[in-house]
Amino acid sequence: MATKATFYHAGCPVCADAETAFAKALDPNVFDVEIVHLGEDKARLGEAEAAGVKSVPAFVIDGRAYHINFGADLAALK
Amino acid sequence: MATKATFYHAGCPVCADAETAFAKALDPNVFDVEIVHLGEDKARLGEAEAAGVKSVPAFVIDGRAYHINFGADLAALK
Question: Where does the Thioredoxin-like fold domain lie (chains A, B) (predicted)?
Answer without folding.
Answer: 10-66
